[in-house]
Design goal:
Blueprint lengths: L1 H13 L5 E3 L3 H10 L4 E3 L12 E3 L19 H4 L3 E3 L7 E3 L5
Parallel strand pairs: 1-2
Antiparallel strand pairs: 2-3, 4-5
Helix pairs in contact: 1-2
Length: 101
């Protein structure tokens, strides 16, 4: 029942025109992706100080893979693949982006 309620909530969030989500929010990322929108990501304050800028629009609607596996690869994935970048709100998180022209 809990999973069904969570899925219903994510679906309803995906129908909105605008959402500001907190950094590392799985619900926010998933809802935006389902709705085909790039999320606004609100950064967490550090030492009671608001970040500058306090929020950013993500470069793609793809969710962030917050804990990507290494698969024994010693290379930095974001340096060898043009369609992957570090997430705006999570390092070492990865996300898919359009390859540069």
């Amino acid at each position: 029942l809990h999973d069904q309620k969570a899925l219903a909530e994510v679906y309803l969030l995906s129908l909105t025109d605008n959402i500001v989500t907190t950094a590392r929010s799985t619900f926010g990322y998933f809802a935006h992706s389902l709705g085909g929108l790039r999320p606004w990501i609100l950064y967490k304050p550090e030492n009671r100080t608001a970040p500058d800028p306090p929020c950013v629009k993500a470069v793609s609607m793809e969710p962030c893979f917050h804990s990507p596996p290494l698969y024994g690869c010693q290379a930095k994935t974001v340096e060898i693949t043009p369609f992957v970048m570090t997430c705006e709100d999570s390092n070492p998180g990865l996300k898919l982006v359009d390859a540069p022209e």
